[in-house]
Amino acid sequence: MRKKAVLSVLGLAVAVAMTLPASAVAKPTMFDRFEARQTCISEMGVGDPIKRQTFRLLWGRKPLRKCVRFYARQVAAERRFEVPLIKAECRLAARTEPEFRLDYPGGVRMCIRMEMMP
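Predicted structure:
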């Protein structure tokens, strides 16, 4: 009986651990996809057939879609890691700079939101 309980708790812990990383990944926003699309278009090389063929060989079927998805996820992940630094900078600026309230009338939240925008 005790062995079954331990195994079920262990199984539940493994199941929770498997779902956490998937839910922790930041979902790309519209701005992330736009930035990724610009990167992919420049990588694809408009008007250059050799560059275009290389791009197709690299990404396979539906290359622009795959490229945009890849780079959008990468941009979203980078932005997710920047958030704690932005929060710390805004809090420090709110404490030390007297003109902070003039620049950001909404306070620290407005500062964070404005700094996170692309």
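Summary: DSSP finds six helices and no strands in the chain.
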